[in-house]
Amino acid sequence: MRKIIHIDMDCFYASIEVRDNPTLKGKPVAVGGTRDQRGVLCTCNYEAREYGVRSAMPTFQAFKLCPDLIILPVNMEKYRQESQKIKTIFHKYTHLVEPLSLDEAFLDVTDCTEYKGSATLMAQAIRQEIVDTLKITASAGIAPNKFLAKIASDWNKPNGQFVIRPDDIKNFVHQLPVKKIFGVGKVTAKKFEQMGINTCGELQNLSQKELIKQFGKFGLRLYELARGTDHREVETKRDRKSLSVETTFSEDIDNIALCHKAISQLFSRLEHRLQYSSKTKIHKQFVKIKFADFTHTSVECISHHLQLGVFQQLLDEGLQRQNKSVRLLGIGVRFYPDVLEHQLEMEV
Questions:
Q1: Does residue 224 carry a catalytic annotation?
Q2: Phi, psi of 230 (to 5 degrees)
Q3: Degrees (nearest 5) of the Cα angle 103, 105, 108?
Q4: Which domains does the chain have, with CATH numbers?
Q5: What is the pLDDT of residue 83?
Q6: Is the pTM of this model over 0.90?
Q7: Are 130 and 138 in contact (CB under 8 A)?
Q8: Reduced to 3 states, what is the DSSP secondary structure of residue 5?
Q9: Among 98, 104, 129, 300, the one annotated catalytic
Q10: Which of 12, 181, 317, 328 could form a disulfide with 103 if both were Cys (CB 3.0 to 4.6 A apart)?
């Protein structure tokens, strides 16, 4: 039985900004794009959330909910530096650390001897050291697997932790809403609702065969997670699967020539980023389009070499799908998995 800790920083970007500017304390603060730039919020503090403001919300919508909202620009370099300090704290306890982003990570402390092997006490100590070192707070979930640990870290936010012991799993997941399962989005949740399924306990009434019939390969995953089963290990090296760049226009555009010009500019940015990527074997190219009404589409094709012309063709194909103005354009590449990349290198 493993001991997994999931650490999740509380409103990471916003907390850093408030820490560095104490006059913001107690005020609704968000980090992201400005209203004039038709931006989107990266995160916001709990004072802002009381108004219904959420991360990934368009800035103009956030201002409607909270007119006094203070929007600060993203300072990614500062956040990366603070994130590195947090990782240093993690590695004092275990070398099995899997970062999910700058502000969250899984830690496997199964074989750690600190605090007599108590994952609960280790999580408390890690959170306290983050407070002492960075002057910001974190929440933690402790459980026998990654799925449950991640859910648990959200249970007592902010600045808290929650433990799911092996003997607790059966009762805990029985009442757990199915929408808490990773991968269950709005469409799948709606389908469950139509089936009269709202909790994992109700989901357990469906056989593995029925779930696979309804949801394909994801059905097998649903069958296991509904029972609190997750065999994934903490991976210290995450395999990058794709790389992309995008831009949001200051005004919606319906001029195809302007869209093509934007693709050319994005292409230069993508080329630059690929120079610093450890991945080299490209498998596919793709274009992402978000329209003025916030609907979106993506188009991709197999391509082993970065080609501007391919992106332009994919753009045309995507624009034909909906006759609407464009709000955002993005382009990117998908890489071969490491195993296939190694095989390709051997064949050359």
A1: no
A2: -150, 110
A3: 160
A4: 169-225 (1.10.150.20), 242-347 (3.30.1490.100)
A5: 96
A6: no
A7: yes
A8: strand
A9: 104
A10: 12
